[in-house]
Amino acid sequence: MTLDPAPPEQNDPLPPLQVAAVEAAVDAGDGASLNALLEPMHGADIADIIEQLTPARRRVFLGLYSGEIDGEILSEIDEAIREDVIDAMPREALAEAVREMDTDDVVDLVEDLDHADRTEILAALDDSDRVAVEHALTWPEHSAGRLMQSEVVAAPEHWTVGETIDFLRAEEWLPDQFYHVILVNPKRNPIAYVTLGRLLSAQRSVRLADIAEQSFRTIEAAEDEAEVAYLFNQYHLISAPVVDDHGRLVGVITIDDAMSVLDEEAEEDILRLAGVGEESRVSDTGVQTARRRLPWLVANLFTASLSAMVISLFEGTIAALVTLAALMPIVASTGGIAGTQSLAVAVRALATRDLTPRNARRVVRRELVAGLLNGIVLALILGLGGTLIFGNPLLGLVLGSAMIVNQIVAALGGVLVPLTMNRLGLDPALASGTFVTTLTDVMGFFAFLGLATWILL
Predict the structure, then answer these.
(1) Sheet arrangement for strand 219-220
(2) What is the predicted pLDDT for the residue at 3?
(3) Percentage of the residues of the chain whose pLDDT score is greater than 90
(4) Is residue 255 in a domain?
(5) Is-contact 153 168, C-beta < 8 A?
(6) Is the domain of 170 the same as that of 109?
(7) Going edge to edge, which strands form the sheet with 180-184?
């Protein structure tokens, strides 16, 4: 059986036909065809294919291909299945793959592994790389020290362009990719850096200090990685030196690592807003997925009971005018959607620090005005519809008034709930969705049924 690789489609790194061809080769146990399909592909795309395979197919795949997995592929594989991949790899292939990786990728690889796997991977490294990885693991989890790579290109502050270029050409240990030459003083404190572009375009006699970049800033190794990502995004950094408690250069963080943190932070916010757990993965089993979602569903049972309690307060009103039962969800659900919109904007703004205590009052006023305007427009539509359909102008008035109230509540709740959680030192995405939805449901039912009791009965 021979499977020809499907031609790549523009702007589509994983065409469906190509994935199907890989699955067919796995099902047929055809290692030669599998190698032919994967050989021209980027390591990140091969990692995506491994993640998309079912657990049964993945086991067969690893039996056919695990010896070909290199450092680039291994570093791209989702951590949820990475340990399974490592266990399936031949030990010689694993050692070679690890030796190909930068130290920051090795740290990311081993920090979540059990002791036996971690020891085995560290033993495969050269002495200098092993010491660098072990030192990085002493820094707190999710810190700059864990994120940095130890391979740093540094030069004395008094060097010239010519001396630096000669040094770079003579050294064999340089990282595959770097963007700056960091200038250090005799105590190895970083004081500036020079981009490779300016280095190559300057005359040999020019001092490095004379062509240093204005964007230079250092990052402490204990700094939280979220703060690191913010600095890179805020100040358009490409790389930044990392220093220890004494200000000495210990590593460097590059833009690809910072952008990975930004992506992870955004993903965590989305998952927390949805109440599905920040560690949810497409590769999870049904049992894992159910276990992560169940606590939030149970919590929602209790919050939903508040809405039921509000409704029970107006049993007489509903019994007297059964039409209200059919109309209640309209007000509550529209408020829930509005609250989710406001909440998503507020949580993201807090994450990017666009929403701060200084401008919070202005943002709250904006949401209040937006909720009022949306409520008026929706009230006119719903009130007119209720009047025409049910022939009762007072019912239309109740619908419209309740809609205005709930839109205001939704808009304010969407921004005030995450602001309050942030002020309390809690993640604003954590459970905010549950609180806002409960708030709009309770207030929607209360406003609608309360106004109906007052106006219609």
Answers:
(1) 219-220, 239-243, 249-254
(2) 45
(3) 33
(4) yes
(5) yes
(6) no
(7) 154-156, 180-184, 190-195
**Ranges assigned E (strand) in 372-445:** none
The per-residue pLDDT of the chain, averaged, comes to 86
Lowest mean pLDDT among 202-216, 261-275, 317-331: 261-275
Using the 3D structure, point to which of 270, 295, 322 is the last residue of a domain: 270
CATH number at residue 438: 1.10.357.20
Amino acid sitting at position 405: V
Task: Write out the two tokens for 244.
Answer: 């220890």
| Number of Cβ within a 10 Å radius of residue 203 | 9
366-398: burial string, b at 16+ Cβ within 10 Å, e else: ebeebbeebbeebbeebbeebbeebebeebbbb
| Same-domain status, 445 and 307 | yes
What does the angle CA 242 – CA 70 – CA 225 come to, to the nearest 5 degrees? 25
Task: Tell me the CB-side half-sphere exposure of residue 131, using CA atoms within 13 A.
Answer: 5
* Residue 83: domain span: 16-138
Pick from 295, 344, 289, 323: nearest CA to 395: 323
pTM of the model: 0.68
Alpha helix ranges (H) inside 137-224: 144-147, 161-170, 196-201
Q: Taking a C-beta distance cutoff of 8 angstroms, is the pair 404, 376 a contact?
A: yes
In the numeric block, which tokens belong to residue 30? 């055809």
Tens of pLDDT, residue by residue over 116-149, are 888 888 988 888 889 989 999 999 988 999 999 8
405: confidence class by pLDDT, cuts 50, 70, 90: very high
Model confidence at 419: pLDDT above 80: yes
pLDDT digits (tens, 9 = 90+) for 203-235: 999 999 999 998 899 999 999 998 999 899 888
- Per-residue burial over 408-443, b if 16 or more Cβ lie within 10 Å, else e, is bbbbbbbbbbbbebbeeeebbbbbbbbbbbbbbbbb
